[in-house]
Automatic annotation (TrEMBL), chain B:
<feature type="transmembrane region" description="Helical">
    <location>
        <begin position="104"/>
        <end position="121"/>
    </location>
</feature>
<keyword id="KW-0472">Membrane</keyword>
<keyword id="KW-1003">Cell membrane</keyword>
<feature type="transmembrane region" description="Helical">
    <location>
        <begin position="12"/>
        <end position="31"/>
    </location>
</feature>
<keyword id="KW-1133">Transmembrane helix</keyword>
<dbReference type="InterPro" id="IPR007227">
    <property type="entry name" value="Cell_shape_determining_MreD"/>
</dbReference>
<keyword id="KW-0812">Transmembrane</keyword>
<feature type="transmembrane region" description="Helical">
    <location>
        <begin position="133"/>
        <end position="155"/>
    </location>
</feature>
<keyword id="KW-0997">Cell inner membrane</keyword>
<comment type="similarity">
    <text>Belongs to the MreD family.</text>
</comment>
<dbReference type="Pfam" id="PF04093">
    <property type="entry name" value="MreD"/>
</dbReference>
<comment type="function">
    <text>Involved in formation of the rod shape of the cell. May also contribute to regulation of formation of penicillin-binding proteins.</text>
</comment>
<dbReference type="InterPro" id="IPR026034">
    <property type="entry name" value="MreD_proteobac"/>
</dbReference>
<keyword id="KW-0133">Cell shape</keyword>
<feature type="transmembrane region" description="Helical">
    <location>
        <begin position="74"/>
        <end position="92"/>
    </location>
</feature>
<dbReference type="GO" id="GO:0005886">
    <property type="term" value="C:plasma membrane"/>
</dbReference>
<protein>
    <recommendedName>
        <fullName>Rod shape-determining protein MreD</fullName>
    </recommendedName>
</protein>
Length: 301, 162
């Protein structure tokens, strides 16, 4: 039966030829998948491979972002002259105010450093920042992760804090040479150690998946927290630098019969509106109080 | 045994590229919840149309690439697409005979399985509390399927992809 068939050219496609090995191949590939899942979840062996592969597909992300980029460019092009003038005046006024504040800040920083010196404060930490642009948003609607255009070649590292002009924004969770992924504080996997600015009470803020708020967890009903209190990062988690504002307490709900209050935090950072973010670098060396006034110029980028 | 020569496979890779772009293009959150699983649909089509060329390994490696592009754990999407491919390999002769509405229904079921597997893996790895909205892409994929299949089959005919 088989020998005459072999001599002929098979005119039809051999649809049945692979049938018997289908189950074997499926199980084989399935096992590979499970092994990959396990290894990638538990260990970091695959992170280098992933970072290089991600760099290969970065152009894809760039292309997919083109439409929104084009829209914003077009938007800028058609802005009318009067609007521009108006914006210019507003920005000039704002700049003036900020400059005046910076003048004060220099002397205040110097004064603060001297006072800390007097108190024998162990560490004086200054932060350098680097501006980065958000070039992509994770397509998964349940993960609050964005891609920024700075990577390990710019010195970005895993666990680095990200802030915007108003407050804490997130942390770097994956780095490749030219871009990196940032988990925003609103992601359900995100936790920020905070401190109530007024009373100094420490707490942990938890991302809820909502776009502009977080929650404080395990706060007893009796703790001194009021609506409107400012929460700043406490620096205890070693990721977010101390002193950056996170948000304000928006709502406190005491439920009788429950041990903890439900506290909602309105975020300061415009987590889903800003396009530019700041990467915070911490230089842990001591700073000479005499150099203090120059700090502010160094920070500007 | 000489099998017919592979032909114009770049069409397949370009359709995949298009599907990848569509699946990462930024959309408002409320639309992106129901974003159709473009890559799964394209893989489904090519496995159905050319099962002797595109099978499990094709689905597996496309899934790995998807894991890289979407930043999911390695193996998550490859396992999902593997499941899609193995279902379609078993059903492709019947699927081709179905009228468009029945095909769309099968796409709903298959993409539903794919989403469900994704959901299980995600919850097993402890990523985000899943909701049933996670299955919405199955519905939209079924709604888009007639157009996807018309476009891809006309491409297949025009460029004689075999």
């Amino acid at each position: 039966m088989s020998s005459p068939c072999k001599s002929q050219e098979p005119a039809i496609k051999p649809i049945f030829s692979q049938q018997q090995s289908l189950a074997t191949r499926f199980v084989f590939l399935l096992l590979i998948c499970i092994a990959l899942l396990f290894v990638d979840h538990r260990y970091h062996y695959l992170s280098t491979a992933r970072s290089w592969l991600t760099m290969v597909v970065t152009p894809l992300q760039w292309i997919s972002d083109l439409p929104s980029r084009a829209f914003s460019t077009a938007d800028e092009l058609v802005t009318s002259r009067s609007e521009l003038l108006e914006e210019n005046t507003r920005l000039k006024a704002r700049n003036l105010i900020l400059e005046q504040k910076v003048q004060k800040l220099a002397s205040l920083t110097a004064q603060n450093l001297r006072l800390k010196e007097l108190l024998n404060s162990s560490e004086l930490v200054d932060e350098q920042v680097l501006v980065a642009e958000i070039i992509g948003v994770d397509p998964d609607p349940y993960a609050h992760i964005v891609t920024i255009n700075k990577g390990s070649s710019d010195g970005v590292f895993r666990g680095q804090a990200i802030v915007d002009a108003h407050g804490v924004m997130g942390q770097v969770v994956a780095v490749n040479p030219v871009s990196s992924k940032v988990m925003l504080v609103t992601d359900t996997a995100s936790r920020v150690p905070v401190q109530v600015n007024r009373s100094g009470y420490r707490a942990i803020a938890v991302g809820t998946g909502s776009k502009d708020s977080m929650e404080l967890v395990h706060i007893p009903d009796t703790v001194d927290i009021r609506e409107g209190d400012l929460l700043t990062s406490s620096g205890l988690g070693q990721i977010y630098p101390v002193g950056y504002p996170l948000g304000k307490v928006r709502k406190i709900v005491h439920t009788p019969g429950e041990a903890f209050a439900k506290i909602e935090v309105q975020l300061m950072a415009e987590v889903n509106r800003t396009r530019f973010v700041l990467l915070v670098f911490r230089s842990d060396e001591e700073i000479d109080p005499e150099e203090a006034p120059e700090l502010n110029q160094e920070e500007g980028l | 045994m000489s099998i017919q020569k592979a032909n114009a496979h770049w069409v397949v890779w370009f359709s995949l590229l298009g599907a990848f772009l569509l699946s990462i293009v930024p959309l408002p959150a409320w639309i992106s919840i129901a974003r159709p699983s473009w890559v799964a649909m394209v893989v489904l089509y090519w496995v159905m149309a050319l099962p002797e060329r595109f099978g499990l390994f094709f689905a597996f490696f496309t899934g790995l690439l998807m894991d890289v592009v979407l930043g999911t754990t390695f193996g998550q999407n490859s396992m999902g697409l593997l499941l899609v491919a193995v279902i379609v390999l078993g059903l492709h002769r019947r699927l081709r005979m179905f009228p468009w509405w029945q095909q769309a229904f099968m796409v709903f079921v298959i993409v539903g399985f794919y989403q469900l597997l994704n959901l299980w893996i995600r919850s097993a790895l402890g990523r985000t509390p899943p909701t049933l909205w996670y299955l919405a892409p199955a519905l939209t994929s079924a709604a888009f399927w007639p157009w996807v299949s018309i476009i891809l089959s006309s491409l297949r005919r025009d460029f004689r992809v075999t």
